[in-house]
Specification:
Elements (H helix, E strand, L loop, with lengths): L1 H23 L7 E6 L13 E8 L5 E8 L10 E5 L7 H9 L2 E3 L11 E3 L9 E5 L9 E2 L7 E2 H18 L8 E6 L5 H14 L8 E7 L5 H5 L2 H7 L5 H11 L11 H11 L2 H10 L2 H6 L19 E2 L6 H8 L4 E7 L7 H10 L4 E10 L2 E9 L3 E6 L6 H4 L1 H12 L5
Parallel strand pairs: 4-7, 4-10, 9-12, 10-11, 11-13, 13-16
Antiparallel strand pairs: 1-2, 2-3, 3-7, 3-8, 5-6, 14-15, 15-16
Helix pairs in contact: 3-4, 4-11, 7-8
Length: 423
């Protein structure tokens, strides 16, 4: 009886979400605020691509304001795929995905001398062949903010509900993209919310929520499927490889007690050392850049909405309440959506062997067996395709996350997959 009650409660929750989305369609004009950005401090001259930034209010009273960066495809925006991209964490800004992974800009990594860090073009941006919405999610991430402390509290399922609202409202304001093929994508911790979001969008389409989203599938890079098992081995492994100092490792063990992946931990000292573990010099440049007043004006950031911008904010009021995402992969496999799961084969945070194991446990037959895939005649990784339209690929030499280490190879992989070509 308890199990039946739980299932019924979950059913009611989904029905309430769908009802809310239907109500929100009646007043979309108050939810959206977007501006074109033609120049960015640190970049010489006008931007050679189309950038829009803005906020989308979600929730019944729009108490959550999700900030986004939208880059229009540099090829054929009328027909190219539209990708909704989530950076991991949870709590890592979409700007990190844009400037360190798959977007059209990179920081010029040079010694910081007090001046504004410089931006340069990324020749391997995925926006060469797709339009991408980079969204700061969950609330409290990057430039996204809540209007009160209750709204600032989030979890896996709240994040998904808010992202679903976000996408519907964004498409209502950008009707020219409604017919484009749409993919939901992300990396790292996004391996948890992305499959849940894909399922919710699919359910919304089946329930008649408009605009109907032309959902084609999803992409995940170095994805978490079970946070504890994926994450707790990373720091000891990094120490064993000599990648972090004995002093930092001992501090992490002492303050965190072996649990390095708790996001809503009240142990501030542990979180401080975890943040130190994940920061590097290139990442620090983004903090100097995003906290500059001229940068915030250029991005049209609302004054007083947040304090200091952080690339990854670990002190979110966030509860990771989804046990994992495997069951959602199972469900989506029956619906015929395409999926690409890729892993850097040098990733110590979410090792590819674990990812390969859960994909294998889906127990779908193989239609294209294990083989190398190449870029300009060189082996770029290995791949296998299954009968449920899922492709798994490793990226040779890629870490966490793969596009940071192997941008050319990952761009080629993405371009081939979205073009329905073999890797």
């Amino acid at each position: 009886m308890a199990r039946l009650g739980s299932i019924f409660s979950l059913y009611l929750l989904h029905m309430l979400v769908l009802l809310l989305l239907l109500l929100l369609q009646a007043c979309p004009q108050i939810a959206f605020s977007g501006s074109i950005v033609k120049f960015l401090p640190g970049f010489q001259g006008p931007l050679p691509f189309e950038l829009e930034t803005g906020y989308v209010g979600v929730g019944e009273s729009e108490e959550v304001q999700l900030f986004y960066y939208f880059v229009k495809s540099e090829s054929n925006p009328k027909e190219d795929p539209l990708v909704l991209w989530l950076t991991g964490g949870p709590g890592c800004s979409a700007w990190s995905g844009l400037v360190f992974e798959i977007g059209p800009l990179n920081f010029k990594v040079e010694e910081y001398n007090g001046s504004l860090p410089k931006l340069v073009i990324n020749p391997y941006s995925w926006t060469k062949v797709s339009s991408i919405i980079f969204v700061d999610s969950p609330v409290g991430t990057g430039f996204s903010y809540a209007k009160n402390w209750i709204a600032a509290q989030s979890d896996d399922f709240k994040q998904v509900d808010q992202l679903h609202q976000f996408l519907i409202r964004w498409l209502i304001d950008h009707p020219e993209f409604v017919a484009n093929p749409i993919y939901i994508a992300g990396d790292s911790y996004s391996g948890i919310p992305v499959p849940i979001l894909v399922q919710q969008i699919s359910t919304g389409n089946e329930g008649g929520i408009e605009p109907l989203i032309n959902l084609q599938g999803y992409l995940l890079g170095n994805p978490v499927t079970d946070q504890r098992s994926d994450g707790n081995s990373a720091i000891p492994y990094a120490h064993g490889l000599g990648l972090i100092s004995n002093e930092l490792y001992e501090s992490l063990k002492r303050t965190c007690g072996g649990e390095f992946t708790s996001i809503n931990s009240e142990n501030a000292e542990c979180m401080q050392y975890v943040q130190e573990f994940y920061e590097s010099y290139g990442y620090l440049l983004s903090r100097y850049w995003a906290n500059d007043d001229d940068v915030r004006k250029a991005l049209h950031i609302r004054q007083g909405s947040i304090g200091q911008w952080q690339r990854c904010k670990f002190e979110l009021y966030y509860t990771p309440n989804a046990a994992g995402s495997f069951v959602y992969h199972v469900n989506l496999s029956t619906k015929g959506y395409r999926s690409l799961i890729y892993s850097g084969d040098h990733d110590i945070t979410v090792p590819f062997l674990g990812t390969q194991a859960w994909i294998r446990s889906l127990n779908y037959s193989i239609v294209d067996d294990w083989r190398s895939w190449k870029v300009q005649g060189q082996v770029a990784g290995y791949t296998r395709t299954y009968s449920n339209k899922m492709t798994f690929a490793t990226v040779k030499g890629g870490g966490h996350t793969a596009p940071e280490y192997k941008p050319k190879e990952c761009f080629t992989m993405f371009k081939r997959w979205t073009s329905h070509e073999p890797l």
